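Priority: medium. Attachment 1 of 2:
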């Protein structure tokens, strides 16, 4: 078979000088597009390629090191975010503690089911309903020294500040040798700075507070400097921001002064004016529980002693429901509430709220509660349903700690003060269903005779 004649190739282009058949040209073009042509590199070119590969290897090491550093930073950020989210979950768990108050023991029957007394609406916290009949409200109002909407007569923060201003003006007119020794005049620049801060706080809504305001808790005359800012004119937002600062930086004794003179007065004035409490004041009350001893001594106990209104007591009690308080602070507060000589509806509300937290109370506190309730056996005056509710919660939570003698005293008490729905539940908790039925049958026979 004859060989195919060789084609003459061009030295420049490397292509055939003769035209190939059309089919061969199409096939060659397709192969050229599909496969890359191989070219031989000179010796020097191969050496250069080795250098490029070596530099690529070095570049890969640097890149890998940088990637590792970035991954470590990202892992650190992820761990920090996990810690923050865990902290937020813990705080949310504390805030939701109110909703976890179900008990294995039988609670009040459906016909005695309690109503949530507080509702949140449009930036305010209000008392949705008292859960009392009009007759019971009137009875409770008489015992609390006023109506549910009236504010007891007391010296307000504005009165105290005006007295301070008048005192300063009187001192300014005295000769220097007649000024009392304890009077220390503040520099005019300090007075100007804190007066300007006070003007800022009268329309404060959000943002950072001036640094000069944040250092007030560290001053030895912090109370005098604080009055320069006119706390009676602060916005609710400013009161909340200030409470956060003072609750965190003042010791319990100083925090008690701030709570009692500033925060409590603002809260009561807002409730009196609007018949409900601004949400920022409500949050300030919750923040004040950060110092439990100061909260009880500066807010809760003064409310009971000064004769607060039912609306004030219910709103403050809702704060107690929604925060976690150490048991020893709550035990002391319950003990002091139980030792109050005159009956106060607010005391029953606070006692019931604190007992619902199911603390493991010491024996002296249990005994003081028994004494508190039994002391009403000598009074023939009708007691409101709040008192009966507090008694029911007490026997539900601590019936095993009351003792035989205490139960007998409570039995005699219930013969004097009887509620048609609640007292039967108290007897069932204390003496069981059999004793309760027997005692009820005996009382029915007595009524028949």
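Attachment 2 of 2:
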């Amino acid at each position: 078979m004859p060989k195919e004649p060789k084609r003459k190739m061009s030295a420049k282009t490397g292509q055939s000088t003769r035209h190939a058949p059309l089919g061969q040209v199409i096939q060659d073009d397709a192969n050229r597009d599909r496969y890359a042509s191989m070219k031989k590199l000179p010796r020097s070119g191969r050496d250069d390629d080795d250098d490029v590969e070596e530099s690529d290897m070095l570049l890969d090491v640097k890149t890998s090191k940088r990637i590792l550093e970035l991954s470590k930073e990202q892992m650190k950020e992820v761990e920090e975010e996990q810690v923050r989210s865990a902290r937020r979950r813990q705080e949310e768990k504390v805030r939701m503690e109110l909703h976890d108050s179900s008990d294995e023991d039988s609670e009040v029957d459906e016909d005695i089911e309690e109503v949530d007394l507080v509702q949140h609406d449009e930036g305010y916290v209000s008392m949705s309903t008292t859960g009392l009949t009009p007759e019971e409200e009137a009875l409770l109002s008489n015992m609390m020294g006023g109506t549910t909407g009236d504010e007891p007569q007391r010296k307000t923060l504005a009165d105290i500040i005006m007295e301070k201003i008048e005192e300063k003006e009187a001192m300014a007119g005295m000769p220097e040798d007649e000024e009392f020794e304890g009077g220390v005049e503040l520099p005019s620049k300090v007075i100007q700075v804190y007066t300007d801060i006070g003007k800022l706080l009268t329309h404060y809504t959000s943002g950072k507070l001036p640094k000069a305001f944040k250092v007030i808790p560290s001053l030895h005359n912090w109370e005098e400097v604080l009055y320069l800012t006119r706390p009676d004119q602060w916005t609710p937002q400013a009161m909340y921001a200030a409470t956060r600062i003072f609750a965190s930086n003042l010791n319990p004794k100083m925090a008690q002064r701030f709570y009692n003179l500033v925060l409590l007065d603002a809260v009561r004035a807002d409730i009196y004016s609007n018949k409900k409490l601004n949400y920022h004041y409500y949050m300030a009350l919750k923040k004040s529980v950060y110092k439990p001893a100061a909260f009880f001594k500066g807010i809760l106990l003064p409310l009971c002693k000064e004769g607060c209104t039912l609306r004030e007591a219910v709103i403050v009690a809702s704060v107690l429901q929604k925060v976690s308080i150490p048991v020893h602070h709550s035990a002391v507060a319950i003990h002091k509430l139980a030792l109050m000589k005159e009956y106060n509806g607010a005391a029953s509300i606070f006692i019931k709220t604190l007992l619902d937290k199911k603390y493991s109370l010491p024996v002296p506190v249990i005994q003081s509660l028994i004494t508190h309730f039994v002391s009403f056996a000598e009074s023939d005056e009708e007691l409101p349903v709040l008192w009966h509710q507090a008694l029911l919660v007490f026997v539900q939570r601590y019936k095993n700690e009351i003792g035989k003698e205490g139960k007998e005293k409570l039995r005699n008490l219930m013969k004097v003060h009887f509620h048609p729905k609640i007292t039967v539940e108290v007897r069932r908790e204390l003496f069981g269903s059999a004793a309760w039925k027997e005692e009820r049958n005996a009382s029915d026979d007595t009524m028949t005779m």
